[in-house]
Amino acid sequence: MSVDGVAIDPLTELDVVTTVCGALDRGEGGRILTPNVDILRLARADPAVRQYLADATIVVADGMPVVWASRLAGTPLPERVPGSGLIWSLSYHLGRSGRSVYLIGGVPEDGARRAAAVLAAACPGLRIAGARSPAYGFEHDSESLAELCAGVVEAKPDLVFVGLGFPKQERLIDALRPELPMSWFIGCGAAIDFVAGDRPRAPQWMQRSGLEWLWRLAGDPRRLAGRYLRHDAPYAVRLLTRAALRRVRR
């Protein structure tokens, strides 16, 4: 189904896990992308964002406004499926099969390593193929970027969590996918920080009510105020209005 021109798969979190595990059993890799309001907004004007979405094997909604828009349009998505939830559910189920994950992101120098230790303790059987928290700006240093990619490729993980923020994480996935065609990749934003305990998640009631953005804004107003208040909030209002109008017209 489509939300503002972006095709989103009507899958639950368990559906995503089942799809990934089945594909790995068949030796098939893939990519998961979890668009929120900000990514949908960017996709309207940026061809690179649309290409990330087109390249994804699975696209699921990370953001309650996206789910609300689907419901208002009369084509409801079953639930929100954020990367911060998938990092746990995918790791748990991959552990049951003795499969491996690689973590990229977190607070330098050791955020990914600490998050990997938490996942390994919570998910019996999970193998940690590697964990890296690259320095800020590493993507502009060809030597650092090549060294990071070489380490991931050598480890041959079943699944790679890339928590560098959008779109930096998607660019890195673009570089890695051709080298690891049987691996899965997901850009998971702040999920590695959440697992490591370096950043607190919003309370469950705020997540369910679509107010997680307010929690994040309160925690980092200087960085997020412009994006959330000037761009994302007005776009979300237009998104929901257009969705309601489409249903009325039908």
Task: Explain what you see.
The chain is α/β, with parallel strands linked by helices and 250 residues long. 54% of the residues lie in helices and 12% in strands. The chain is built from twelve helices and eight strands. It has helices at 13-25, 37-43, 47-55, 64-72, 83-96, 111-122, 142-155, 168-176, 191-196, 204-208, 212-219, 221-249, and strands at residues 2-3, 6-7, 30-33, 58-59, 100-105, 127-132, 159-163, 184-187. Strands 4-3-8-7-5-6 form a six-stranded parallel sheet, sandwiched between helices. Strands 1-2 form a two-stranded antiparallel ribbon. Helix 11 (212-219) packs antiparallel against helix 12 (221-249). The radius of gyration is 18 Å and the shape is globular.
Number of helices: 12
Kindly report the spatial arrangement of strands forming the biggest sheet: 4-3-8-7-5-6
For the residues shown, what is the average pLDDT? 93
**Fraction of helical residues:** 40-55%
Share in β-strands: 5-15%
What does the secondary structure layout of this molecule look like, with pairings?
Blueprint: E1 2-3, E2 6-7, H1 13-25, E3 30-33, H2 37-43, H3 47-55, E4 58-59, H4 64-72, H5 83-96, E5 100-105, H6 111-122, E6 127-132, H7 142-155, E7 159-163, H8 168-176, E8 184-187, H9 191-196, H10 204-208, H11 212-219, H12 221-249
Parallel strand pairs: 3-4, 3-8, 5-6, 5-7, 7-8
Antiparallel strand pairs: 1-2
Helix pairs in contact: 1-5, 4-12, 11-12
